[in-house]
Amino acid sequence: TLAIILIAGLRQKMGYSDVPRPFRGVAIAMVITGVMAMAFMGFAGMVNIQ
């Protein structure tokens, strides 16, 4: 749920940003999703939930 909210907020900000033409739309969403996935993978070993 947190990731969905973050992506929605970032996509909304992309409407006001100067994104290069080839990266507009789905392409920039995929780049953002990949960066966020790597960030969340960094938290994987911090908490041990059973």
TrEMBL record:
Instruction: List localization entries.
Output: Endomembrane system
- Chief place of localization: membrane
Q: Per the record, GO CC terms?
A: endomembrane system; plasma membrane
Identify its membrane topology class.
Answer: Multi-pass membrane protein
Q: Which UniProt keywords apply?
A: Membrane, Translocase, Transmembrane, Transmembrane helix, Transport
Membrane-crossing segments per the record: 26-49
Identify the InterPro entries for this entry: NqrDE/RnfAE (IPR003667), NqrDE/RnfAE_oxidrdctase (IPR050133)
Please give the name of this protein.
Electron transport complex subunit RsxA
Q: What is the organism of origin for this protein?
A: marine sediment metagenome
